[in-house]
Amino acid sequence: MFKRTSAAVLAASLALAAAGCGDTGDDTSSGGGGSKTLTVFAAASLTETFTALGKTFESAHPGVKVRFNFGGSDSLAQGITQGAPADVFASASPATMKTVTDAGDADGTPQVFTRNRLVIAVPPKDTGKVAKLADLSRSGLKVVLCAPTVPCGAAAKKALAAANVTVKPASEESDVKAVLTKVGLDEADAGLVYRTDAKAAAGKVKAIEFPESAKAVNDYPIVEVKKAPQGALAKQFIQLVLGAQGRAALTGAGFEAP
Amino acid sequence: MSRSSRPPWFLLLPALAGLVFLVLPLAGLLARAPWSTLGTRLGQGQVLEALRLSLVSATLSTGVCLLLGVPLAWVLARASFPGLGLVRALVTVPLVLPPVVGGVALLLALGRRGLVGAWLDSAFGITLPFTTAAVVIAETFVAMPFLVISVEGALRAADLRYEEAAATLGAGRWTIFRRVTLPLVAPGVAAGAVLCWARALGEFGATITFAGNFPGRTQTMPLAVYLALQNDPQAAIVLSLVLLAVSVAVLAAMRDRWVRT
């Protein structure tokens, strides 16, 4: 009885997984017939902005589809060095970009196109327990940070060190969205997230700016991938991001000019 | 039933393909393992810490599963009441639910602002998320159906006449359950417990969602593997090897002793 059920469940989940994966790998190189697909690997924090810029790009280039793979910069960089078919890589930190340039997978020098800084995220029904960065060290306060190995965690570590504040986090989350979830559900009293993420989650969390965030500003570099199937389109997309339209979309989302 | 009959080709070929499919990823893991630096990497405190936490929490959660799951299986197999089918469906929900969703559900029920969690917090000052207890709860949530289904199957297959004979000889219900029913279904319970333990050991989604990730407190091996994979794939491979070795060793040992098929 059990064996049959579990086999069925396994088969079903495998089918789902296969269906899900099939979508991402295909049609990158479908160059013919005027329909081309540009594949952009971008840091998760760029999701809203780049999706909008992708629409702009598509309407300016008829017959071109822009497909995004948003994720943690580390895993995206790992993917590119393992040969994932990307045209453009936009990363949330120079360190993760370095993984790609060191592997010789970048075409040209990465250009910093925007910057992001941290804010303190608190639950919407904040009781005023947290007003400045130093408050995070108070005992009894549940603080969640990103793990030090991911960019937002590295930035948090830097900001806390610069401010000479010691925090004993309740959890070191795998990415910035997980921190937002924990704060948004009011399971944590505070977390350090990017200003843009807090802005995108407005209503679910409240953002508190703190001056020490200036010491841990993240640069976002962008580059064309060396084996880009759509090299010419990749260059044009990067120009769009670096240009006035890109700048406007980024600052509108809470990013800063480089 | 003869087990020695030669399998026909139309079963043998897909069976072989299936076996290769299951074994190939493990071969990849072994082929890419940094054998030369294995010793030094294993000595790192964080690996042992995560391994210890994984073993302890998986074992505790198997204990909880046994305490609650065996009676639940008995009810499903022996009792009859309206809505029994619904109860059985509910029990198997965690089996098909994505574990991350399970983790969110646990937060909404047992979190600081959750249905029951808010009361736990105000009445006893207990908050579960971000604690080792939360790890055990998350693992129990996803692992218990494995035990229940396995034990229920064993109970259904067991011959009721033994229990009836014991009853006519004057044994009480507790004595019958302890001295007749349990020994009868012991292999099913053992198999269920092993599956349950293995599932708990590998638990990732519900744990990282409900218990968070902090070394020594809630960072089990799967979580350590996932985080290591983001910036140090070699370390992730080493951690995976350890987890693989431990689970294979335990499953092999148990299989020989209790779960002989």
TrEMBL record, chain A:
Keywords of this entry: Metal-binding, Signal
Entries under Pfam families matching the protein: SBP_bac_11 (PF13531)
Signal peptide range: 1-17
Alphabetical list of InterPro entries matching this protein: ModA, ModA/WtpA
Keyword match Lyase: no
PROSITE patterns assigned: PROKAR_LIPOPROTEIN
Family per similarity comment: Belongs to the bacterial solute-binding protein ModA family.
UniProt-recorded name of the protein: Molybdate ABC transporter substrate-binding protein
Taxonomic source organism: Actinomadura violacea
From TrEMBL, chain B:
SUPFAM superfamilies: MetI-like
Domain ABC transmembrane type-1: 51-254
Location, primary (coarse class): membrane
Topology within the bilayer: Multi-pass membrane protein
Location in the cell: Cell membrane
Keywords assigned by UniProt, alphabetized: Cell membrane, Membrane, Molybdenum, Transmembrane, Transmembrane helix, Transport
Keyword Cell inner membrane tagged: no
Top-level taxon of origin: Bacteria
Membrane-spanning residues: 55-77, 89-110, 130-151, 180-200, 235-254
Pfam families according to UniProt: BPD_transp_1 (PF00528)
Keyword Transport annotated: yes
Record function comment: Part of the binding-protein-dependent transport system for molybdenum; probably responsible for the translocation of the substrate across the membrane.
Family: Belongs to the binding-protein-dependent transport system permease family. CysTW subfamily.
Protein name (record): Molybdenum transport system permease
Organism: Actinomadura violacea
Gene: modB
